[in-house]
Amino acid sequence: MNAAAQQASLSTRDLTIRFGGHVAVNAVTADFYPGTLTVIVGPNGAGKTTYFNLVSGQLAATSGSVHLAGRDVTKLGPAHRTRLGVGRAFQLTNLFPHLSVLENVRLAVQSRAGIGLNMFSVWFGHKAVIERAEHYLERVSMIAKRDVMVGTLPHGDQRKLEVAILLALEPEILMFDEPTAGMSVDEVPVVLDLIHQVKAERNKTVLLVEHKMDVVRSLADRIIVLHNGTLVADGEPREVMQSKIVQEAYLGTPEHV
Ligand SMILES: Nc1ncnc2c1ncn2[C@@H]1O[C@H](COP(=O)(O)OP(=O)(O)OP(=O)(O)O)[C@@H](O)[C@H]1O
């Protein structure tokens, strides 16, 4: 695990949310560090997406807290948390369907650069911004589709575009919720390669919700297991995959893990 001296980029403390009488996330305490990719696994309805929503600010906690680099952000909304370095892909709500692929990434590059919508600064930085946007489109193998209207793209391309937008925002914490779901067989490696590249840079905190065990195995530095909203295992992949609780209840029989 990481050196105790290193500050966690993200922490949750007793993080809890109730929907009526149902506790969807139950007192989850965890620290996440730069340079570590953590995969969150667990059966359907375990609370994985809800935990992501609590971290990114889409949902407000019933109790407990969320901290970014030591700062308590529990009361802050999602836009504020984004500005503080939380980046999340695969909600597809980040996309502007009536703009081109390039325009979508350009807006993310501008937002990251703090250029905003001031006309003079847009003009001033235009060439550099476009080049930057093209760079991210190349990284997701979508440069050939730069002028296509986003609303007309197939689902897999929209998800790749979301990765480009996420990278363009240059967050410190990257959250991927089932990044390859709904993708065709030839699209999956493009996205997995990108996550591998982000991981190889060793300076970002990456959280991934994933069901596919081959993906978990190839990417995870650490695995957290949620069950009924509760954190039931947390550790290095080999240790967690071989633990009795995971073998029996969460990942199936040993030959599946
Ligand atoms: N807005 C909501 N209102 C009521 N219940 C909710 C809400 N969001 C989630 N839940 C419930 O909370 C529990 C956890 O759901 P969540 O989607 O986080 O699970 P998950 O682990 O991501 O599942 P999956 O792997 O199927 O995506 C479920 O029982 C779900 O029905």
From TrEMBL:
GO terms for molecular function: ATP binding. Keywords: ATP-binding, Cell membrane, Membrane, Nucleotide-binding, Transport. InterPro entries: AAA+_ATPase (IPR003593), ABC_AA/LPS_Transport (IPR051120), ABC_transporter-like_ATP-bd (IPR003439), P-loop_NTPase (IPR027417). SUPFAM superfamilies: P-loop containing nucleoside triphosphate hydrolases (SSF52540). It holds the Pfam family ABC_tran. PROSITE patterns: ABC_TRANSPORTER_2. Residues 10-253 form the ABC transporter domain. This is ABC transporter ATP-binding protein. It comes from Massilia norwichensis. The lineage of its organism: Bacteria, Pseudomonadati, Pseudomonadota, Betaproteobacteria, Burkholderiales.
